[in-house]
Amino acid sequence: xxxxxxxxxxxxxxxxxxxxxxxxxxxxxxxxxxxxxxxxxxxxxxxxxxxxxxxxxxxxxxxxxxxxxxxxxxxxxxxxxxxxxxxxxxxxxxxxxxxxxxxxxxxxxxxxxxxxxxxxxxxxxxxxxxxxxxxxxxxxxxxxxxxxxxxxxxxxxxxxxxxxxxxxxxxxxxxxxxxxxxxxxxxxxxxxxxxxxxxxxxxxxxxxxxxxxxxxxxxxxxxxxxxxxxxxxxxxxxxxxxxxxxxxxxxxxx
Length: 254
Description:
Elements: E1 3-4, H1 5-16, E2 28-31, E3 36-37, E4 39-45, H2 48-56, E5 61-66, H3 79-90, E6 94-97, H4 100-104, H5 110-118, E7 124-126, E8 132-139, H6 142-153, E9 158-160, H7 164-167, E10 172-177, H8 186-191, E11 196-199, H9 204-213, E12 216-219, H10 222-225, H11 229-241, E13 244-247
Helix pairs in contact: 2-3
């Protein structure tokens, strides 16, 4: 079965409502390919490796969280940008990308799906554009939260706990999270009442805030925390429209 490019775009837009978000780049169809679509590949980032894998999988469309175009970037089509666009255009593949709308979707989005993987259900939202999630939890310590996240994601994580080793042993009743590069949400998580905040990356100021405010910080990897939304949403859309779907994982240590 195949559908038109416009039908697929309408399905993605209908679920993700990109018009609601102030974002860092364009959401929706970023590169136009063939008009009829029967096979969709999903991935985290529109890297050359993902594009080549999608070509091998005979994809008509690629659905990602991190697309090709971002506010403030160099607009010239040279180097890596030329290579990615050249592959997409030569093989007539559509590229769909949704950034903050995919983070925010309450069921299929990155935050909801990371919560599912970690066994946490969001009870309220916080931060800019209400992207952060907050949930009740019961852990004996921040170290226990970090260990749980590491086991669930299959990778090591960075924990900065208040007061050093002793602070890592304080009981945890509220967990907050926001996937990817959401370290700037830490102060909003603190204000929301979190005992620990989980995201993908940590910057230098957050380590000091964790030690000084009594709220622990867990950095679990940008890719690792955002690898669940794209396949979940693309699979749901493909199922509803009768399309073939395949998630292709391109490993990224960041």
